[in-house]
Design goal:
The protein is an alpha/beta fold and 312 residues long. 43% of the residues lie in helices and 11% in strands. The chain is built from nine helices and eight strands. The protein has a six-stranded mixed sheet with strand order 3-2-1-4-6-5, sandwiched between helices. The chain has a two-stranded antiparallel ribbon with strand order 7-8. The longest helix has 31 residues.
Length: 312
C-alpha cells in the first residue's frame, strides 16, 4: 500500500510540474506576441484532438488568473465525416461549463467529390474549414481566433517549406487571416508536443480521431515528424536550438535581397562584429529548456539549463 501511495504521489508531482510548465509556456507566448488583450473574445477552434483540448483547458485557467478580462467561446466544425461521434464534444463542453457552438457543414462530400480516391484530402479540407471558421468568427464577434498548433508543428512546417517549398517559412505565433479580417493566434507556440501528449493522457480528454475521413496522412510531414523525434532522442537540445532559431534570424547572413540590401555593402575600414567571423562554426553550449523526469537528466544541471554535449 505504501509503495502504491508513493507511486501515486510521484505521478501527481510529475503532473503538477508538467501542468506548470505548459501554463508557463502558454503565458509566455501570449505575453511575447501580445496575443490576448483586455476585452478580447477568443474563439478557440476545438477539433477534438489533444492539442485543441489542451489549448482550451490552459486558456480557461489563464482566464481565471490573468490581470485582464477576456471571453472564451469554443467552436467545433462538424464536417459530416462518416462515423463522427457528434455527441462527444457537446457533452464534454456542457460538463465543463464552456460556452460553445457546433457548426455543421458538409465539407466531407465536397472534398470526396474533388479529390481522387487515395489522394491526401487535408489541403482542400483545411481551406474549406478555414473559410467557414472565418465566417463564424465574424458572426460571433470574435476578436481573436486561437488554433492548437504547437512548437513541433512550427518546426515541421519550417522543414517542409525548406525541403519541398524552397522557402524559409513556418507557422507564425500570430498573424492576420487570409481575408484580412481576423487575428489568428497560436498560444501553444512554445509548447512541446510530448508535453501536450502527456497532459492530454493525464486529463483523459475524450479524443476524437482525425482520420475519420479516410485520408492518407501527409507522408512528407510524417517523415519530418519522425526525424524530429529521432533527433530529440539522440541529441537532447537539438529541437530546442531549432526552436530558438525561429526567433534569432540574421537577414545579413542569408541571401534574400528583399530582406537585406547586399548591393549597397561597402568596406568602411571599421571592425564589423557581424562580418565573416559569423561564418565560423560554433556550437551553442547552453540554452533554456524545461525538462521533466521522463527526460534524460544527464543533460541538465540544477538550474534547468541543458548542456549540449553533441549537436553533430
Amino acid at each position: 500500500m505504501r509503495a502504491e501511495n508513493n507511486t501515486a504521489q510521484a505521478n501527481q508531482q510529475g503532473f503538477n510540474k508538467l501542468k506548470k510548465r505548459l501554463r508557463r509556456s502558454v503565458g509566455q507566448a501570449i505575453q511575447d506576441f501580445n496575443m490576448i488583450e483586455d476585452g478580447d473574445r477568443i474563439m478557440v477552434c476545438l477539433s477534438g484532438g489533444k492539442d485543441s483540448y489542451t489549448l482550451l483547458d490552459i486558456l480557461r485557467f489563464l482566464q481565471r488568473v490573468a490581470p485582464i478580462t477576456f471571453e472564451i467561446i469554443a467552436v467545433n466544425l462538424d464536417q459530416k465525416q462518416p462515423g463522427f461521434p457528434e455527441h462527444i464534444l457537446p457533452e464534454y463542453l456542457k460538463n465543463e461549463g464552456v460556452d460553445f457552438r457546433i457548426i455543421e457543414e458538409d465539407t466531407y462530400s465536397i472534398v470526396k467529390e474533388k479529390i481522387p480516391e487515395g489522394k491526401t484530402t487535408c489541403s482542400l479540407c483545411s481551406r474549406l474549414r478555414r473559410g467557414i471558421l472565418y465566417r463564424v468568427a465574424s458572426e460571433l464577434g470574435a476578436t481573436k481566433i486561437a488554433l492548437g498548433h504547437h512548437r513541433d508543428d512550427m518546426l515541421e512546417t519550417l522543414m517542409l517549406n525548406m525541403f519541398y517549398g524552397g522557402t524559409i517559412k513556418s507557422m507564425p505565433p500570430k498573424l492576420v487571416s487570409d481575408n484580412g479580417k481576423h487575428v489568428v493566434i497560436r498560444p501553444l507556440a512554445y509548447a512541446r508536443e510530448k508535453d501536450i501528449t502527456k497532459y492530454s493522457e493525464y486529463m483523459d480528454f475524450p479524443i476524437i480521431p482525425c482520420n475519420l475521413c479516410g485520408s492518407q496522412e501527409n507522408l512528407q510531414r510524417k517523415v519530418i515528424k519522425d526525424l524530429l523525434k529521432q533527433w530529440d532522442r539522440q541529441y537532447p537540445g537539438r529541437i530546442e536550438s531549432m526552436a530558438s532559431a525561429l526567433q534569432n534570424v540574421v537577414p545579413s547572413h542569408l541571401a534574400d535581397t528583399a530582406l537585406f540590401e547586399f548591393k549597397s555593402i561597402q568596406a568602411t575600414g571599421e571592425e564589423n562584429s557581424d562580418g565573416d567571423t559569423a561564418f565560423d562554426h560554433s556550437t551553442p553550449t547552453t540554452f533554456l529548456n524545461y525538462r521533466d523526469e521522463a527526460d534524460d537528466q544527464s543533460f541538465t544541471d540544477e538550474s534547468g539549463v541543458i548542456r549540449v554535449l553533441n549537436l553533430s
